[in-house]
Every structure is written in C-alpha cells, then in structure tokens.
Amino acid sequence: MSVGGSVSSLTYRMKGLPINPKAEPKAPQPIVVADAEMLTSYSVEPPADSAVHPSDAGSVPKHSVEEAARSLVEAGEGAFVPESGNSFAEPATTLVVDMAEIGSEGRGAPNHDSTFVEALSQSASGEPIALTLADAKRLLNMDRPRDAIAVLQPVLSRPDVTAEAWTVCGWARWRMASNREDELENAREAAHAFQQALRIEPQRIHLLSRMIGRCNLLCAQQLNGQERENSLDQAVRALQDARISGQTDHSLDLELAGALYERAMVSPHLERASWLDRVQHLIDSMPAREILQQGWLQANTLWARADIVDSRTAQTLHERASALVQSQLPVLDDSQRDVWLTRLIDGERAHLQRIKGAARIIRLQQLQPAIQAQLDSASSIAPLLSWISVLGDWADSLQGAAAPAKLDETEALFSRIQTMAPENSGELNFAHAYYLRLRARRELSRSGQDAALRQAEQLLERISADQLPQALVQMESAEIHLARARLAEGAAAEAHYAEAAALGAAASHASENEARALSCALTALVALQSHRRDQSRVAPMRLLATRLLSLTPTDASALRLAAWVHFFAGEHGQACEFCEAAWNAGALRSDILPIWQQADTLWAYQLGEPDRHPQWKRLHQRMRMANSTS
Predict the structure, then answer these.
(1) DSSP secondary structure string for all residues of 365-389
(2) With 323 labelled, which of 142, 250, 460, 574 sits at a CA distance of 20 to 30 A?
(3) Per-residue pLDDT tens over the stretch 447-487
C-alpha cells in the first residue's frame, strides 16, 4: 500500500494544524523534464526530478511527463562519456550502456576507500583538468557525490578551471541536496557552481540558468520570511533568463509558472494579484496537450485568487477550481488521485472559512458524503489528514454534545492512518494529541476534558527526539499544560502554569513557532502572577512581551498580554494604553475590560488628580466607550 511522501508532507501538515487554521493552499511544485540537451551534454546525467521533493503531498502530478523523460534516460542508462576535447560542447558520441563499464576506463575504477579518494584529490592540483573530471564523473555516476566534490575541489581554485568542472560540481551538490543531505547548504553551493559555469560559458544559459532557478527553489523550501522571498525572486529571475534564451520549452514555462505562484503566495494581498496574472499568462500560452500539469497549476491559481477577492467572486473561482480537480480524479492513478484529492479538500477547507453560520454547516453536510466515498479508496495518508482538519473546523462550528461527537469521527481516521503508515508514529501521535486537545475544549464535563488532555499528554510522551522537532512537541505540551491548569486549582494549577511557561519559552527558540510559543508562555505567566504575585517574574515577562510584539505588533492577544505585563510592573498608564490598542485591534470586551478597569483605577490613584491629566481623561473615556459597546 502506497504511503508515498508521508514523512515530509506529514511533518508539515502536523506543523500546520495548530499554526495555520486557514489552510493556505500550497504552491504547486514545478514540473521538470529531462530534455535531450540535459541528458547528452555531460557525462553525468542531470536529475529528472524537480527542485521540490515529490514526496510532498502537494507535488505536481507528473507521471506522464516522467514517462517521456524516462524513455530518454533508458536509451543510454542516462550516462554519456564525452570524447577528449569535447567536454561541455557537442553531445558525446560514446554511449555507455553498462554503468559498470564506466569504472574500467582511465585510471581504474574508484573504490569506496577514503584513502583512494584522498589520493585523487591530492593529485588533482597538478594534473590535467580532464583527468580529474573523469574521476569526478565516475564517482558521481557511482552515486558518490561527496567524493566527487572532494576530487574536484583543488581544480576549482585553479585559474584554468573550466565551465565543465563547475558544472559537474553543481550536479554533485544538487544530487546531495536532492537526497536531503545538508539540503539548504548544498542547494546554495549547487547554485553557486552553476553560476560560475555560466560566467565562463554564457552560451549555456538555457540549461545553467534553469538549474540555478531550481536550486533557488529548493533553497526557498527551507527558508522563511524575507529570505524565502529573496530565494524565490532569484529563482524567478534565473528561470526567466533560461526562458528568453531563444528555445521554446513548455516544461520550462511550467517551472517558471510554479515559481511565480510560490512567489505570489508569500507576497502581501495587494501585490498577489499581479503575480498571479503572470502565472495565468504562462498557463494560457501553453499547448493543450499539457492538460494535467496545466490543470494542477490552474486550480491552485484559481484558489489563490479566491483568497483575495470579494465573497461572490471567490465562490465562482472556488467552483471552477473544484470542478477542474474533480474532472481529473477519475483518470488518475491511485497515488496521483490522492494528491489531487488532498488539494481538493484543502481548497474546500479554505473556502469554508469564508462561509458563516447555517450556510457553513449545510455545505459541510453536503460535502461529507462525496469526500467520504473518495477517502474510502485512498491509498495514502495525506487526504485523511486533510479531512481530519476539516472535521476539527466543523467541530468549532457546533455547540454542546455535537462538537465532541464530530471530533469522535477523527478517531477512526487516526486508527486507519496508523495502520497505513506505522513508520510515522511520531507525526501521527502529535496530530492525535492536537485533536484530543481540541476535543477537550468541547467536552461538557471537567472529567471528560481532563481525560482527553491526559491522553494527549501520553501521546506526546511517546514521540522521540528523532521523530519530530523538539520545539514542536514542546509547543503542544505547553498548550496541554495550559489547558490542564484551567481545570485545576491551587498548587496543581500553579504547577501546570509553570510547566506551560517553561515549555513555551523553550519552544519559542524555533522561528516557525516563536509567536505562538511566546503567547503561550506569557499567558501562563500572567495566570501565575494573578494567582500569586512574584516580582521576579516581571523582568522575564517583559522580555517575552517585547519579543512577541516585535513579531505581531497589531495582534489583539499580544497587545492584551503586554498590558498585563505593564500592569504587574506597576506601569498602569502604559497598561491602559495597551488596553486601548488591544481593543482597537479587535479584542473582546470580556478579555480586555477586567484589566483595563483595574489599571484605570490604579492609574487614577497614582495621579492623585486624574482629571487634570489629558491622557488619563482620554483613555478613561475610551474605556467607558468599550464598556458600553455591544
């Protein structure tokens, strides 16, 4: 039974469960075709896979493209040996059918002895570059990219270094990055190597700029924030350079469109439409024979547009995207059908966020039978996880006993996932724990809530350090302790709050969880300080609040927590200012008024004659307005 791609994609999904409730659509991954030039210009075949690992559940369906590429590779086992003096020029004429024969030429077959590789490396600085290249190529064809780089290293610093030497180095680094070995570093080094080759041989821009683009796309997958934007910008520029080199290549158009889509998804909403226009222009220019690949990209582009337009237009775009995906499901094989089904569910989930009240429940009820029929035949875990996310959202829309009953439906799905992918027990335990915490919020009895939280805690304890990032587990553990503290009293409650604060602070050192972890730690410390005052807590609370506000300066919850920090520090005027900011940002009256009223009273007492202070009078009036506003 196929569970392809479950490891990497599942980890990202687990990260997304608590962090990204809106289920932002993933970028479609670029399709990469092993074209004739790439297969014949070098003695080492360039990879025919994309810069983004196909193991991700969001990968572009590409089985038909791979078949075409495979036919080219299989024609000569993907390896060509250039004649002397022909390197980095015309296609080689000597075809190697048996990969084992490669090792019988030149100075003999390299073995796996590290001393042999070291000897080759030491001799490289004083011998003709062609001999060193032959050694490096043989090592790379034996799937020893690290050794190939070691042999090449002395040559790369020579003034007579060739473009071919840099290109082989680029392939070796790319191979290592594609195998997820020091992924970010090797992708960057590969891009640098291809850039050096392009500097020497600018006529190879079509191939080399394309690989530079792929390397930057791979880097972007490992980065966040501005670094990710920069890497995507570099990828787009490189792929554009490759595209304008004069060769018509629709597979390159698909790669560029995919890169533009990813860039669109990290841009502000006001800028996103222009990026998506460029994607659409490329889609429209492609021939109809690429229906499968164009359909994938088109559906994602439609869903992306739906996120930045009015509700009526979004409804139309969503219907078009859903219809497009559903039209392809019957003609796909099992693994590809699961990829498209997962995207369909994620698209529905994002659309449901815009529907409120009874209309949302009706849509969910209509959707469930159709999706359930597809899930019954799923052969991988990705669509099951996506539907679990929908069930979690659905439960949030329900009241009373209906909410935990809806979350009960996730139990059967988790059991099925555990059977399908037992090797992913860490990720699955994390997901299960998260949904048990959600269920605890919906349980009607305190005993039911505590039982669900205890079970969630036990699941997290089973996750080893090599299964998931420690910060991710610490973050969820902190949330569970925070929930258990609210059910407890006295010393037991304080113990849970203290544990939540410690775990949240520890988890905040991971950038992907920093804001959420800081918020959890501060919430716990505020509760502790409310239970029992301890001025030694104020300084660390102030540091956490400063970090949180730097990340989320307009978030209502962050502003409210900052108000509490200033309140406990005796800075009641500043506490009132943060209360007003939180109210302006959308904080609920029930959340903000208790501290605002206390801070207002104490500030007035500190001032002695508050009516003579314009700032107090203004904020006092704002507090009264907040109190009277429904």
Answers:
(1) HHHHHHHHHHHTT--SSHHHHHHHH
(2) 250
(3) 999 999 999 999 999 999 888 889 999 999 999 999 999 99
